[in-house]
User: Fold these one by one.
Assistant:
Number 1:
Amino acid sequence: NAGVTQTPKFQVLKTGQSMTLQCAQDMNHNSMYWYRQDPGMGLRLIYYSASEGTTDKGEVPNGYNVSRLNKREFSLRLESAAPSQTSVYFCASTQDSYNQPQHFGDGTRLSIL
Amino acid sequence: DQQVKQNSPSLSVQEGRISILNCDYTNSMFDYFLWYKKYPAEGPTFLISISSIKDKNEDGRFTVFLNKSAKHLSLHIVPSQPGDSAVYFCAAYGGTSYGKLTFGQGTILTVHP
């Protein structure tokens, strides 16, 4: 009954450090997404992967990279963390990227000092 | 450019009364709309959706109304319960961003016993 699992749940980084946020889903979904949530901004799409082997930029991709490792896993990497990347990061998945509800993990709370 | 807007940051309602959460959108190409509910320290969970070919969809205590001419949708919760206290996000699929969900900023609903 895991659904979408994100690790870690919390992380504190120093400016300039790198980090990879992990996401895995066990629902055999084709499409996966990374969002960030900031106060008063809703959720904004960083990157998404419509299917295994493909990735594409969302609304706010600068400073991030992604890897769709296999059908289950989609990771988000910060190469050189900046204070502006302090946020809550959510991973989501859906069977098909067209008009299907997305299922979300519980988020990673990332603070960059 | 905020294509999906929730203009009320918060809403307070008495238990047993109706809660009405509103959402406006600007992109006439949006064709599928969803409402998500989010508790603190958890990811958003899908609540209810509506296709642009309909003007109403009902699921138990939750009803979503869509007014395409006004580019407006609303979520009605009747009767409201204290457990409904959460942040509610509306979101939309469609337009030029195929497969990408666009979220509103969210509305904090508080239901008082």
Number 2:
Amino acid sequence: GQQVMQIPQYQHVQEGEDFTTYCNSSTTLSNIQWYKQRPGGHPVFLIQLVKSGEVKKQKRLTFQFGEAKKNSSLHITATQTTDVGTYFCAGPYSGGYQKVTFGTGTKLQVIP
Amino acid sequence: NAGVTQTPKFRILKIGQSMTLQCTQDMNHNYMYWYRQDPGMGLKLIYYSVGAGITDKGEVPNGYNVSRSTTEDFPLRLELAAPSQTSVYFCASSYSRGGWGVGNQPQHFGDGTRLSIL
């Protein structure tokens, strides 16, 4: 079945350092979404990428969709304590119809 | 708009008991979903619905049932609760203008129901 893996599983960084999480799919994706979940909270949609090689920025966050549309990355520049949480990527379920398969997630801890 | 509202927020059940987790959304979204999230893990799709009267199984449907009689409400029923169903349950909704090929739309999540079965 379709799998969406993320690495690393956990990341501790010093405040001000950069952070990157990678998302890899076993199948080609038509699009990919990224969500953030704060500790004790619910997932919140961040962005969606659709085009091969697409790069989108949201302030200190940079999202990239691979050329082959099988991988994606989220890079945070100069992390802040507000960036703490788990970041999930999500790709279309192989069965389609608005279902997504969530990645395994990367838990980010920022040390002040 | 309240968005997606889930009740209750917390619940403790005994093995073998049953309960219904409520979910309602006021965004007129046609798609609704139920996920479970075990501690430190990702989200697993339990059931989903593409509109009133239409539901389908996700990855982990065993032990659960759903119904969708209105656009707004999508309750999740647990029958004969088991310790393996201890988890956080999230309801989500999204809007789609069409079916396959349109592209996935962002999902809006409720705050979750934290369920323990002892």
